[in-house]
Amino acid sequence: MTEFFQSLGMTYEWAFFVASIAGILLIALPLMLAVAMIIYVDRKVLGAVMMRRGPNVVGPFGLLQSFADGLKVFLQETIIPSAANKGLFLIAPIIMFTVALAAWAVMPFSETLVLSDINVGLLYVLAISSLGVYGVVISGWASNSKYPFFSAMRAAAQMISYEVSIGFILVCVVLWAGTFNMNGIIEAQRGHGFGVINAYVFNPLIFPLWVMFFISALAETARAPFDLTEAESELVAGFQTEYSSMSFALFWLGEYANILLMCMLNAILFWGGWLPPFDWEPLYAVPGIVWILLKTFVFFLMFSWIWATVPRYRYDQLMRLGWKVFLPLSLVFVALTSGWLVLVEWA
Q1: What pTM did the predictor assign?
Q2: Which of 130, 128, 124 minimizes the C-alpha distance to 182?
Q3: How many Cα atoms occupy the beta-carbon half-sphere of 204 within 13 Å?
């Protein structure tokens, strides 16, 4: 893209700057549209499970409902509690929203369609996704209210519990792929399953890791049944209790952008990313962006299905699962995976 802008007569510095801005907008704007649409899908899935219609009034089939809700919150007054820390109160949703967008910089939509194809892409995603909890913690503390404060403490404990397990799971994926580069991890899955399936999950050492990663992704995004930070029966609306207008909407946008990110990570790390399901030449005629978006959408439907059907965990059950089940299991699989790879290389 830089070369294109250089051909229009720009210097290299200006061409690189304009190309970077254009690349960011090409990811951020469709992502915001996708967030609006998946909120609609989420409500439709919940409606279907509960034998209701879901959104069906605003626009054809209710497709414009999310935009109507966005316009409504945009026109509302931003109310700041008198006892709140005003600066931190306002900056918290901005942090959560910005961090949620920043992680998409290294996500490959196809072999060539990626904003920044860096060698440590997976480390970058892990680091950026860990920062999202700061928005929750700051909002809970700055609200100067008991329910948001309890929610912030829960969010911090929950993130630490499952981030550790996710880290060890990703170690195993990196060991198999031999790289931290996202495209490299996808390429390593070409024909990995029985020599014909482009995925890691048919490997008996990797499949349990995918199950743990999927569950940890639910906890990482505070998605049901691990939505203890927003448990309405205990904490009203958790860290969002005192928020209104666009500050409240930014939390929602950040939350759903994170959910989409985790769905795409499932597809990239374990299900072949932009590769077709089978290593069969005619399937490669379909663009890679179609395959990765289809896989991401399937995982989002699974997220919605679990939200609609699985009851919320108690907080002690949540902590026990993270520290007493997933952490020891992930450590065992790090030892098994590295041991197997060393044995194969030695043999």
Answers
A1: 0.90
A2: 124
A3: 2
Dihedral sign computed on CA atoms, order 271, 213, 130, 177:
negative
- pLDDT tens-place values along the chain, 347 residues long: 677 777 777 777 778 788 888 888 888 888 888 888 888 898 899 888 888 888 888 888 888 888 888 888 888 778 888 777 888 888 888 888 888 888 898 999 988 888 888 898 899 998 888 887 788 888 888 888 888 888 888 888 887 888 888 999 999 999 999 899 999 999 999 988 888 899 998 888 999 999 999 999 998 887 878 887 777 666 776 777 888 888 888 888 888 888 999 999 999 999 999 999 998 888 999 999 999 999 999 999 999 999 888 888 888 888 888 889 999 999 999 999 999 999 988 76
Please answer whether residues 46 and 223 qualify as being in contact, where contact means their C-beta atoms are separated by less than 8 angstroms.
Answer: no
CA 258 – CA 100 distance, rounded (Å): 6
Helices within the chain (DSSP H only) = 2-7, 12-49, 65-75, 86-102, 121-142, 146-177, 182-187, 207-220, 232-235, 245-270, 288-309, 315-320, 327-346
- Mention every residue, 6+ apart, whose C-beta is less than 8 A from residue 41: 300, 301, 304
- Using alpha carbons, list the distances in angstroms from residue 324 to 36, 148, 161, 225, 296: 37, 27, 10, 18, 30
Around 114, how many Cα atoms within 13 Å sit in the side-chain half-sphere?
A: 21
Among 106, 122, 118, CA closest to 174: 122
Half-sphere exposure of 166 (CA within 13 A, CB side): 26
Phi, psi of 201 (to 5 degrees): -70, -15
Using an 8 Å Cβ cutoff, are 251 and 240 in contact? Answer: yes
Among 201, 172, 199, 196, smallest CA distance to 188 is for 199
Residue 286: phi and psi, rounded to 5, are -80, 130
DSSP letter, residue 63? T
DSSP bridge partners of 123 = none
The rounded distance, in Å, linking the Cα atoms of 346 and 340 is 10
